[in-house]
Prior knowledge:
This protein has helices spanning 8-49, 69-98, 105-115, 127-130, 134-162, 172-179, 181-193, 195-198, 204-222, 231-263. It is mainly α and 264 residues long. The chain starts with 7 loop residues before the first helix and ends with a helix.
Amino acid sequence: MVEVVGSSQLRANIVFRRVALLGISSLISGVLVGGVLGRIVMRLSAVAAGPDMVGRLTENGNRIGEFTIVGTMILIIFVGSFSGVAGSVIVVGSDPWLKWLGPLQGLGFGLVALAATGDGSPFDSVDFFILEPRALNVAMFVGLHFAFGLVVSGLYWLFDRTLPPAADREQVGYLVVTALGGVGLLLVIALFTVPSFCGCEPNYGFLAIILVVVASTAVRHASTFISGIPTWVARSTTVIGYSSLALLLAIGLRATIDQIQRIL
C-alpha cells in the first residue's frame, strides 16, 4: 500500500504550500485582472468606440458606455472570482511544466490561460464585431490573460516570502487550501461540458487534454513525497505532462488565432 511516511511530511508540505500559494494568487489575480482591470478595459473599449456606440446593448444586455456601481461590483466580485478559481486550475496544473521559464513563468501562465480559451467561445461574442477598433479590443482581451499570469507570479513571490515556510509537521492551512482546488476543477469541467453554464457547445476533447495536464501534475507532485510510486511512473508522467501541455498550447492557440483572424 502506498502511504506517506517519515520525512516525506516535509516534502508533502512543500508541495501543499506551493499549490496553495499558487491557488490563492490565482484567485486574487482573477479579481484584480478579470474584475478591476477588466472593467478598465471595458471603459477604454467604450471610449474608443466613439459616441455613436454609446447606449447600444452588448451581447450580455449591458449598455455601452454605461457604468454603474452595482455592475462594477458584480464584475469584480463574481466575474473576477470566477476567473480566478478557474484560472487556478490552469496555473497549478501547468506549474511543474513551466518552471524552466524561471522569472518568465508568469508569461507562461498567461499563454496557457489564453490557450485554455481555445474552444473559441470567448471570441464568438458579437461585441468583437460591433465595437471598433476591433484590433484594439482583441489586443486588450489577449493582454488580460498575460496580465493575469504576471500578477499570479508576482503575488506568489510576495506570499512565498511572507507566509510560513513548509515544516516537518502538519500544516493544515496549506492542505485545506490545496483541497479546495477541487472546486476549481469542478468549475472547469462545467465550463466545457454544460452548455447552459458556459453558453457554448461542449468540448469534451479539449477538456480531456486539460484534465491530463492536471492529472500529470498531481502524479508528479505525489511522486515527490509518497513512497511506493515506481520510478517509471514518475518518468512517464513527466513525458505525458510536457506532451499534453504542448498539445493544449498547439490546439488552443491555433483555435484562438483562427478566431482572431475571423474578427479582424
